[in-house]
């Protein structure tokens, strides 16, 4: 049995200044199964990458556009923690 497409929309946003974790996503679909959305994130290079996508359900498939822009954010890159090997186990020092 095939069910008809169900409209929906969802989204989320993360803004964590302590870890410079910034990301978001939004998507919407209609009763015909057409989907439109975007997501963004800031990478360690300091740029924000945004992907905008759409599937019009017209036979052309999913189209996507990627943008790269300066974020103006000083990204925090944590220092690696030392690791101790105990036999086959690995223990991280906190």
TrEMBL record:
Pfam families given in the database record: Chitin_bind_4 (PF00379)
GO molecular function: structural constituent of cuticle
Source organism, top-level taxon: Eukaryota
Key words of the record: Cuticle
InterPro entries in UniProt: Insect_cuticle, Insect_Cuticle_Struc_Prot
Gene Ontology cellular component terms for the protein in this record: extracellular matrix; extracellular space
Entry keyword annotation includes Chaperone: no
Identification of the protein by name: Uncharacterized protein
Taxonomy of the source species: Eukaryota, Metazoa, Ecdysozoa, Arthropoda, Crustacea
């Amino acid at each position: 049995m095939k069910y008809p497409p169900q409209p929906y929309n969802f989204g989320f946003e993360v803004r964590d200044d302590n870890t410079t974790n910034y990301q978001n996503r939004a998507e919407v679909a209609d009763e015909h199964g057409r989907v439109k959305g975007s997501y963004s994130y800031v990478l360690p290079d300091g740029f924000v990458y945004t992907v905008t996508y759409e599937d019009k359900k017209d036979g052309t498939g999913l189209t996507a556009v990627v943008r790269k822009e300066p974020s103006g954010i000083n990204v925090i890159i944590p220092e690696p923690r030392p690791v101790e090997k105990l036999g086959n186990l690995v223990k991280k020092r906190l």
